[in-house]
Structures are given as C-alpha cells and as structure tokens.
Protein: Large ribosomal subunit protein bL35
Organism: Caldicellulosiruptor saccharolyticus
Amino acid sequence: MPKLKTHRGLAKRIKISGSGKYLRKKAGKSHLLSGKSRKRKRNLKKTVIVDSTNVKAVKKLLPYL
C-alpha cells in the first residue's frame, strides 16, 4: 500500500486535544465585525470539539495526525 496523503488545508485548521478529540476554531471572526455584538465576537474566539458526525471524515483526511 502506498502512503496516504494528509490533507494539508485541514491539518492547519485542526488540533488534537490530550484526550484525542479534534478541536477547531469557529468561523465568522475575520471581517464585518462591527455588526456583531461583543458577546457574539467573544464566543467566536473559543475553540470547539469537532462534531461526532464529522469525525470519520476528519480521520480519513488526517491519517497520521
């Protein structure tokens, strides 16, 4: 079997927690921020766990991470 290629775009966006869960940043924090409330912008800073429905796809794209 040949080596599997890592999806580099996704590898730059995902980190793995100590317990093995995949972490990602929230979208919507780059521009057009004046129309968003402080609370909304503050909550967009947080990292979240990748949803269980997407974990299988992430594992396939990141075979060695």
